[in-house]
Every structure is written in structure tokens, then in C-alpha cells.
Amino acid sequence: MDSSDGSSDLLVEIIETLETCGLEDDSYQLHDYVDPDALEQLIASADENIAVQFTVEGIPLEVSPDGVNVIVEDESQSVGE
């Protein structure tokens, strides 16, 4: 039962992160971009630090045991400043 709760929590966190970026939950199908069950199993079973990166509707995400983050390019490293 704990794994299904963890999966639900992970999915909710991904959806909330995407909504924070302005992506409505009815404008995409998450399973078109990543297998949510496989992602949850991978994150839950990793012995070491792991991060999975994927993009949903142009929004790059990184999912790790610590949570879901939007990948932001470091502008300080950009050329031409």
C-alpha cells in the first residue's frame, strides 16, 4: 500500500510542478512523456542518488527522491553577457 501512496504523491508533485509553470492538467497526458509507475519504482528502489530528467510540453523536469524540480539553465554561464 505504501508504494501506491508514494506513486500518488509523486504524480501529484509532478502535476503541481507543471501547473506552477502554467501547464493545465487537462492539456497533456503524462503517460505520453513518461511511465509514471516505472518512474516511481525506479525512484523508490534506487540504492544511490538518482535523478530522472524528461520534458513535458516543453517544460524540462528532474525527478529524484528529494522531489520534482524544473530544470533551469544557469544564465550566468550563457555566452554574450
Could you describe the 3D structure shown?
- The protein has two helices and three strands; from the N terminus they run ααβββ.
- The protein has 81 residues and is of the alpha+beta class.
- Strands 1-2-3 form a three-stranded antiparallel β-sheet, covered by helices on one side.
- InterPro entries: HalOD1.
- This is Halobacterial output domain-containing protein.
Q: How many whole angstroms does the radius of gyration measure? A: 14 Å
Structural class, please?
A: alpha+beta
Q: How far apart lie the N and C ends?
A: 52 Å
Average pLDDT, rounded to a whole number, is 84
Biggest sheet: strands, sense, closure?
Answer: 3 strands, antiparallel
Shape: globular
Strand percentage lies at 15-25%
Task: Break the fold down into its secondary structure elements and pairings.
Elements: H1 2-20, H2 36-45, E1 52-56, E2 59-64, E3 67-70
Antiparallel strand pairs: 1-2, 2-3
Helix pairs in contact: 1-2
Summarize the structure.
The protein has helices at 2-20, 36-45, and strands at 52-56, 59-64, 67-70. With 81 residues, the chain is α+β, with helices and mostly antiparallel strands.
Supply database-style keywords:
3 strands, three-stranded antiparallel beta sheet, 81 residues, single chain, 36% helix, alpha+beta
